[in-house]
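Reviewer comment 2.1 asked that we show a complete input and output for one of the modelled complexes. We chose the pyridoxal-5'-phosphate case, as it is the one discussed in the main text.
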Amino acid sequence: MATKIYMDHAATTPVRKEVLEEILPFFTEYYGNASGIYSIAQESKKAMEKARAQVAAGIHAKPEEIYFTAGGSESDNMALRGVAEAMRQKGNHIITTKIEHHAILHTCEYLEKHGFSITYLDVDADGKVCLKDLEAAIRPETILISIMFANNEIGTVEPIAQIGKLARENGVVFHTDAVQAMGHVPIDVEEMQIDLLSISGHKLGAPKGIGALYIRKGVKVEPLIFGGAQEKKMRAGTENIPGIVGLGKAVELAVQELPETKKRLEAMRDRLIHGILDTIPYSKLNGHPVDRLPGNCNISFEFIEGESMLLLLDALGIAASSGSACTSGSLDPSHVLLAIGLPHEKAHGSLRLTLDMDNTEEEIDFVLEKLPVIIQRLRDMSPLYEAIQKQNS
Ligand SMILES: *Cc1c(COP(=O)(O)O)cnc(C)c1O
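Response of the prediction step:
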């Protein structure tokens, strides 16, 4: 069955109509290479600089501090590898967390193979970084702290302003992966003392394959991609003008609408979370109860295997995701769920529903009606559940 109810916005979002409208002329009418000096090229250049200003305004940065990339993964790679290489003489130590996106974790693994030492901070049961642990991990040779703004699986929002303050006091560069936070949580790189920040277009209503990295003026970063002189020689390659225009528009809209979005999504999210926890036994919320992304609901069900749950949901036209092994692409369940202390079996039985403004109250009702039936059906096939039921009766 075709998806009728899309609740996987943390994986990707549809391109917003207003964004698509803005982008379309740049495929066929204003197709100029922004490096040219003739009129049609200047149209591209103008549109790109407008988008740069829109992105900058969305995070309280200056336009010249915004570098366009091909997405969140590239921005994360550029931040980590770029700073590591540029600051090698100063030190080789980097601090991050165990719950980062793989774009950060796998880049750290690469850096470890090339002489860098990485501290992976633990998080508490709600997914929060402990500031005392962070402070204790800082060494004279620490050059970079990279801690995500908000987690893509469990939705926990980290204490970014306090982390920024700590990093600044210790003279350490601070990067945050704000791919999930952008447009959902207010971001101010000045107030929060952030030095580098990654965003991605397709998580906020712009196309896939476009992103940006904010680099505070004065912070040294080596480029990742060499070639032409685009992006002040920091990121070679003919600019993706339609993507850039789309990112600018999407950021502008998301930031304008943020108060309204936050209010509506939080109300829907909380109704979904409490509706599930109240009607389904042996269920538990993952992530921080209050400091969490407005659209994130992540719940573990005991005696359930995530993939079977997703297939039954899909049969009803509901798109969702899970931290189970089958869906994580490895033998282990989600590293994030393991880091917050879930045993393997509870991590396998997790369900992530991520909402955005295109979801409706009727869709929440539908999920709240169908999910208990699906869970019961799966539990009825579980020998472990049967044993527990016998024990309790
Ligand atoms: C999606 C995501 C990324 C990767 O962004 P892409 O644009 O898909 O490369 C990085 N970090 C987080 C937290 C994400 O959710």
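The pocket of pyridoxal-5'-phosphate is lined by residues 71-73, 76, 101, 103, 148, 152, 177, 179-180, 200, 202-203, 211 (CB under 6 Å). We note this here for comparison with the apo prediction described in Section 3.2.
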